[in-house]
Amino acid sequence: MTILFVGRSTFDLGYVCANYPEEDAKHSATHFWAGAGGCALNAAVTARALGSEVKLLTLLGTGPFADAVRTELAQYDVPFEDFATDTEVLPVSSIIVVPGNASRTIVDQQPPQALKCEPDIDALLAEATLVLTDGWLPALVIPLCRGAREQGIPVVLDGGSVKPWSAELMPLIDYAVVSNRFQPEFSFEVHHHYHFAMTRGAGPISWYDGYGGGSITPPQVEAVDTLGAGDVFHGAFCHYLAKWPDFPDALEKAAVVAAESCRHYGARAWIGSFGVD
Questions:
Q1: 183 vs 167: CA distance, rounded Å
Q2: What is this structure's pTM?
Q3: Suppose 61 and one of 8, 37, 84, 257 were both cysteines; which one would form an S-S bond, judging by CB atoms 3.0 to 4.6 Å apart?
Q4: Which residue ranges form the domains of the chain, and what is each CATH number?
């Protein structure tokens, strides 16, 4: 069975700096990387690296950056379906990471999210055991999550930010795993999210499952790059949840993987140092 990851792909240009640049100045980086990124994509690569069967549903389009992303997905054995029209729609992000602050700043753009065709929901869900959405691509993700609900396939939300269509999406979510920056104008209880967790970077993860809740302390590591750690967390969470639906256990194991990723530059270097479970 397959975990579907639905949402955003990007091409990232990352710069590690001792501090943030001043306005109207040149600034030297101590480390640089370039490669595929995006919430859903990074999560899919993570789950695949841990041993899950996955498929990425996204927009790539045409052009050299999209070609580079396709090459990287092939390298990590991540199958995908591209719903983009034949245009250059892939966002390119410039990212500054300051390890001393354990922070990053991202500059990107939001291109049009038009789909090239009407998605065949039944076909997409035919072998799915779990769906993750990052909230992007509403024309695809809302009907897909509605179909998953009708078929009894659980849906995980990577809630990084509230979108204009979040109120329509939220009733279709079974596991809401959000950051502390995700501040919806509605109550999770109203939408009956009996599996809810909030991450706080290196701080404790709070969770609630309808019967009770608790707090999980992530492993403390010397972080050199926090970029993509949330995406890694969500991908690992889906991997462990699909193996055994124990909500706090999946959260705790995902926190270990995400912490390991912070010890390396970029969102992939951790893979070689982490055993498949």
A1: 12
A2: 0.92
A3: 84
A4: 2-268 (3.40.1190.20)
Distance of alpha carbon 151 from alpha carbon 254, whole angstroms = 26
Instruction: Convert 232-256 to b/e letters by CB count within 10 Å (16 or more is b).
Output: bbbbbbbbbbbeeeebbebbbbbbb
How far is it, in rounded angstroms, from Cα 14 to Cα 97? 7
pLDDT tens, residue by residue, 132-152: 999 999 999 999 999 999 999
Q: Residue 13 pLDDT more than 70?
A: yes
Residue pLDDT, tens place only, 70-79: 999 999 999 9
Average pLDDT, the chain: 89
End-to-end CA distance of the chain: 17
* Helix H or strand E encompassing 170: none
Beta bridge partners of 3: 54, 130
Average pLDDT over residues 230-245: 96
Rounded CA-CA distance 178/233 in Å is 11
What is d(CA 102, CA 98) in angstroms, rounded to the nearest whole number?
6
Q: Is 241 left (phi over 0), alpha (psi -120 to 50) or beta?
A: alpha
Contacts with 109 (C-beta within 8 Å, 6 or more apart), sequence order: 91, 92
Contact 66, 91 (CB under 8 A): no
**Which residue type is seen at 256?**
V
